[in-house]
Amino acid sequence: MPNDLSPHAGRYAFAVMVKAPRSGEVKTRLVPPLCAEEASLLSACFVKDILANLLTVSESLPVDCYAAYSPPGSEALFHDLLPPQVRMLPPRNVGLANSLPDAIEDLMADGHAGACLVNADSPTLPTSLLVQAMTILRDPGDRVVVGPATDGGYYLIGLKHPHRHLFHDIDWSTARVYRQTVERAASIGLELVTLPAWYDVDDAASLNWLCRELFEGRRPPHCLGDGYAAAQTREFLRAWLAGRCEHPAMSHTLERLSS
Fold this sequence. Notes:
Blueprint: E1 12-19, H1 36-58, E2 63-70, E3 86-89, H2 96-109, E4 114-119, H3 127-138, E5 144-148, E6 154-159, H4 177-187, E7 192-194, H5 204-216, H6 231-243, H7 251-258
Parallel strand pairs: 1-2, 1-4, 2-3, 5-7
Antiparallel strand pairs: 4-6, 5-6
Helix pairs in contact: 1-6
């Protein structure tokens, strides 16, 4: 039950679903072309940029920002990543099937009127999409707002109630996640609003697209609008491309950058 005496009562929330950036445990599909340590450093850059993006939105809308982190006991690893305005939301369970609705429930229990959960894989997600998601969620009435990812998952889901059924029997980490979520919403009669698509960065091909976007101004097909600047990610990749990249999947970007 929402806490009407909470200082967050009536406000909304953004929460990034973030995994502790431990070497060998995050962004493992980016190894290669990155090494395990580089992948963990890039993951930390993603987190910093995404949180900065959310805080930009909080300057114009009444929202609070959180890092819904995992695994339990990894709090110390986030101390240097989180701005002081970002609160930590501890996990209760392991796995998206539980951690997503748990995060919604916990934010509701703290008095928030609704929340958008954002992945930690899209550092250039346009600020305009975050504003659009929160604006739609704040309109009267119950609904789910979903931002589909180009790989078949979603980069954002926004709710005013946990609706745990939305997260049941989903084939997580597959191209069926978004479609199955749409089907779950229809099965419980919940209005669904779909945002424009954007892309996750979780393999060599999508890392190549990220470099093309940041350094060439090009985006993957079906991704419209100007992406977030992602300054931390950009500087990391600039240094990496200059000194470490030899993977064939990045050859096009390297050629363009060196020309």
